[in-house]
Automatic annotation (TrEMBL):
Cell location: Cytoplasm
A GO cellular component annotation in the UniProt record: cytosol
Protein name per its UniProtKB record: Cytidylate kinase
Keywords: ATP-binding, Cytoplasm, Kinase, Nucleotide-binding, Transferase
Domain annotation Cytidylate kinase: ranges: 6-217
Record GO terms (molecular function): ATP binding; CMP kinase activity; dCMP kinase activity
Listed CDD domains: CMPK (cd02020)
Domain of life: Bacteria
Enzyme Commission code(s) on record: 2.7.4.25
Family, as annotated: Belongs to the cytidylate kinase family. Type 1 subfamily.
């Protein structure tokens, strides 16, 4: 499989989502928002009354997940779960926290692995997540690891939520980010860490266009 893949990994709120969709739009490449798959698993478990502590039941939910990503004319993506538009529902903080819990179940990660690899279709793929460069696409042409301070990420998440019309509290967002970082970095399978061959970009002091320009320059060297 020689489809070029660019991986963007890093903690929540580092700007991966925004930057990945800009890169995908620039190149007209496919986009994988892998976090959405974990969020969808968490939401489906919730909808089916499955406790996230019941690992076998959650793994079954991940295996049989009925999802569809529809790209709209404005390049935004509509996320469908069992025929329902859940684009808004999966962005809730409670679902993000539950996603981080289900993501620590090895059988859930296994169930979602092939589904993620199936996104690598020509002309190319931008893959956004935590383990895109380490586990899902180890042969990616370019691996970026985006970071930013926890405070800056909480500020960005707060702005994002406010724009989406969801009310938020800075202190609780910061705490959630710290708890989620801790869980993502310390889980036994696919912990959040840069691949050995990843380029680490700290975006705390960088604007979105700056980050995109740096990644485009790196990609130009490799394609
Ligand atoms: O990126 P997003 O906030 O949507 O991801 C939700 C959760 O899914 C993360 O906190 C992380 O625990 C999990 N995740 C993961 N591996 C990925 C993407 C997301 O474990 N590749």
């Amino acid at each position: 499989n020689d489809v070029p893949v660019v991986t963007l990994d890093g903690p929540g709120g580092a700007g991966k989502g925004t930057i990945s969709s800009m890169l995908a739009a620039n190149h007209r490449w496919h986009l994988l928002d892998s976090g959405a798959l974990y969020r969808l698993t968490a939401l489906a478990a919730h909808n089916h009354g499955v406790d996230v502590a019941d690992e076998a039941a959650v793994a079954h939910i991940a295996e049989t997940l009925d999802v569809c990503f529809l790209t709209e004319a404005d390049t935004s993506v509509k996320v469908m779960l069992e025929g329902q538009d859940v684009s808004h529902a999966i962005r809730q903080e409670a679902i993000g926290n539950a996603a981080s819990v289900v993501a620590s179940i090895p059988a859930v990660r296994d169930a979602l692995l092939q589904r993620q690899r199936d996104f690598a279709i020509g002309p190319g793929l931008i893959a956004d997540g935590r383990d895109m460069g380490t586990t899902v696409f180890p042969a990616a042409v370019l691996k970026i690891f985006l970071t930013a301070s926890a405070e800056e990420r909480a500020r960005r998440r707060m702005n994002q939520l406010q724009l989406a019309g969801i009310s938020a509290n800075f202190g609780s967002l910061l705490r959630d980010i710290q708890v989620r970082d801790e869980r993502d970095q310390n889980r036994s399978v696919s912990p959040l860490k840069p691949a050995d061959d990843a380029i680490v970009l700290d975006t705390t002091e960088l604007s979105i266009p700056d980050v995109v320009a740096r990644i485009e320059a790196l990609l130009d060297e490799r394609l």
